[in-house]
């Protein structure tokens, strides 16, 4: 395989993973660890299984059809692609407002500047990436470097918090409680909405498609979930160490509280780096992927897609600077993004069995069954959450 292909495959994996690891991801993981303690390990395990099933199906079908998800949806039923794009773009915009807020919070911790000024500064950095001619490659490297940095710093904090690993392992397989809200929020925050399409659309743009590329695409898609899950597990264990010691996590900023309690002021500064890295890479991923869902609808949108990405970041930044965001909204958006997943995955599974889309390709039966189980399970948990859990947030 070409070295450039390896770089793009790794870049796509990190783009998807760092799109998932945003401020909401950090907040959700800490909040649910505080609520469920070691039993949150079970939620993480179930979400990883669902994430892999969704990701394998979606990336594979995009690669075989050599089309973006919205065009695949329009081939199934005219207008369905526009509906899917609407869901993805509105969800991506809501997420990106939270991402910009997180970037502002990270700079506030690091440098003491106001979150709004930090958000403006971070928005300019994200915009700068898309002003380069080789924006795709720069985006890949940016995601990889900051992704590695986040994982290493969180690993350090995990060790300093001394978590009860044995209890965590036991409760992962024998939980005291099963929380549907937590599962759907985690899945929504990892592969919901635009996130699962981030890497698939990036590989399509780089020309890594077709049957011959399937083994590499499969590895890249599973690697993406592995990277995001590693970060989730390290943060869960770091938070569990604090909870197990009976220390109080600050509800106004749960993840910052964990880093601070685990490693003092140094840990608090590390949180600033992790939060900024998580937020700014998610800003880039959300803007890139959301715009990839509308750029094929007209030659004009395709021609000016980079400026659309920049506009997306500008709007997200200005909305945050105007109104800000509470912790509850980030958990809500994660849950709502989880509701988009069964629709998006259902569309992809239909496409996998349409000859006019995939030709004579035969989608593996086990992947179809796996995907259908996820669609049914996520639909059930999504409706249950909407009726029973989301009203409790407000």
TrEMBL record:
Regions crossing the membrane: 36-59, 80-103, 109-130, 142-160, 180-200, 221-244, 273-294, 306-323, 329-352, 364-387
UniProt record, GO biological process: iron ion transmembrane transport
UniProt-annotated location(s): Membrane
Gene Ontology annotations for the cellular component aspect, listed alphabetically: plasma membrane
Pfam families, per database record: Nramp
Superkingdom: Bacteria
GO molecular function, one term: cadmium ion transmembrane transporter activity
Record's keyword terms, sorted: Membrane, Transmembrane, Transmembrane helix
Official protein name in the record: Uncharacterized protein
Lineage: Bacteria, Bacillati, Bacillota, Bacilli, Bacillales
């Amino acid at each position: 395989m070409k070295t450039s292909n390896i770089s793009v495959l790794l870049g796509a994996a990190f783009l998807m993973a760092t799109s998932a690891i945003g401020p909401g991801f950090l907040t959700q993981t800490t909040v649910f660890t505080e609520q469920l303690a070691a039993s949150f390990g079970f939620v993480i395990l179930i979400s990883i299984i669902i994430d892999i099933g969704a990701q394998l199906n979606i990336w594979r079908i995009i690669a075989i059809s050599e089309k973006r998800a919205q065009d695949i949806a329009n081939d199934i039923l005219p207008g369905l692609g526009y509906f899917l794009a609407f869901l993805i773009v509105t969800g991506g915009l809501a997420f990106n407002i939270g991402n910009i807020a997180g970037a502002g919070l990270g700079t506030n911790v690091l440098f003491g500047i106001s979150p709004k000024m930090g958000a403006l500064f971070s928005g300019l950095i994200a915009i700068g990436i898309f002003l380069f001619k080789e924006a795709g490659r720069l985006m890949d490297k940016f995601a990889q470097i900051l992704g590695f940095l986040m994982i290493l710093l969180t690993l350090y904090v995990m060790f300093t918090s001394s978590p009860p690993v044995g209890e965590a392992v036991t409760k992962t397989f024998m939980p005291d409680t099963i929380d549907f809200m937590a599962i759907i929020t985690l899945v929504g925050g990892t592969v919901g909405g635009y996130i699962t399409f981030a890497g698939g659309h990036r590989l399509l743009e780089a020309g890594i498609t077709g049957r011959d590329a399937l083994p590499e695409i499969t590895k890249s898609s599973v690697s993406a979930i592995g990277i995001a899950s590693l970060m989730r597990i390290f943060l869960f264990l770091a938070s569990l160490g604090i909870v197990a010691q009976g220390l109080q996590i600050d509800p106004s900023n749960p993840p910052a509280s964990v880093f601070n309690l685990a490693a003092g002021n140094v840990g608090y500064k590390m949180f600033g780096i992790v939060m900024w890295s998580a937020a700014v890479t998610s800003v880039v991923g959300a803007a890139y992927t959301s715009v990839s869902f509308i750029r094929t609808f007209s030659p004009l949108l395709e021609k000016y897609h980079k400026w659309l990405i920049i506009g997306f970041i500008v709007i997200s930044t200005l909305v945050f600077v105007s109104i800000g965001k509470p912790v509850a909204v980030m958990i809500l958006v994660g849950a709502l993004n989880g509701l988009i997943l069964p629709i998006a995955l259902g569309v992809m599974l239909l496409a996998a069995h349409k000859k006019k889309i995939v030709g004579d390709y035969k989608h593996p039966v086990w992947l179809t069954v796996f995907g259908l189980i996820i669609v049914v399970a996520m639909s059930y948990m999504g409706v249950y959450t909407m009726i029973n859990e989301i009203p409790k947030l407000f």
